[in-house]
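dude i think i finally got it to work??
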Amino acid sequence: MNVRRMLSQLLLAPVLLFGVVIPVIAGGAAEEPSAEGPRDYPYGIVATTGMIGDIVREVAGDRATVQVLMGEEVDPHLYRPTRADVARMQQAELIFYNGLNLEGQMSDTLIQLARSSPVYAVTDLVDEELLMDHEEYDGAFDPHLWMDVTLWMNAVDAVVRTLTEFDPDNAGEYRSRGTTYRTRLEELDRYVHAVTSTLPEDRRILVTAHDAFQYFGRAYGLSVLGVQGLSTESEAGLEDINAVVRLLVDRAVPAVFAESTVADRALQAVIEGAAARGHRVELGGEIYSDAMGPAGTWEGTYIGMVDHNATTIVRALGGEAPEGGFREYQE
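look at this
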């Protein structure tokens, strides 16, 4: 959701944020990026998720320092900002967030910050026709755009646009770095298409803990089923689990996949249910949905995250992917 659009709908009223009364001005909006550029380098940027932070680091280079609020194994659907998070965002020159209600528990905080700080959703440039609806949320879109590499390139464009407006003296550098990163993402997208195309038609079923992979499925030709719903706040009921078990047994699906940010209780119930019906289902591995891997690792980058997911899924479902994944594919 675009914070600046939300602001225009608010009435004049005081709002309590972490015990501090902050005046709300009707029709207020976030500051536009300064046309004069930052006074000092590196300037500070805060990103809500690791996927966004990775883009910003790639585009900004050493012109900025980037702090990510939500690290590995952190669920953005449930995350509530701490006082320290609010202080970091208040001190930052720019704030980037996903939008589309991914950071649902942070909405009020972002609205308040947008009155005095530049706050930008990296999904703002995505054509609404390309967004996926979800039956759980009337009128809301699935926020997990990064699962489709081509769609996530729009987030790169959004970051490039914002940084060039904020720091026009270095606009050429940001555009060049953005183009370089986009080229790498195009190569990654070709890899994911190549390995998923090796999956037999009857193995193109991806069962995960929660429903975060619909964009991945649409982009790369898999049917996707999350045992839980779109939000990790939902719990899988007995009927949900039995429905997944029937699918696994009827289609002889060999593997299901745990997620780094979601408990696997429901998946274990599905595996046990399939076993009770005489069908063995393996846990195909842990994949990354709402957060990347540990900082400093390959999986702790967006490209490494997508590579790990695609390679793990394809190998577990009976397709062909190099053991070394995308990096081996490039050699």
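The domain at 200-330 is CATH 3.40.50.1980 (Rossmann fold).
im so relieved honestly
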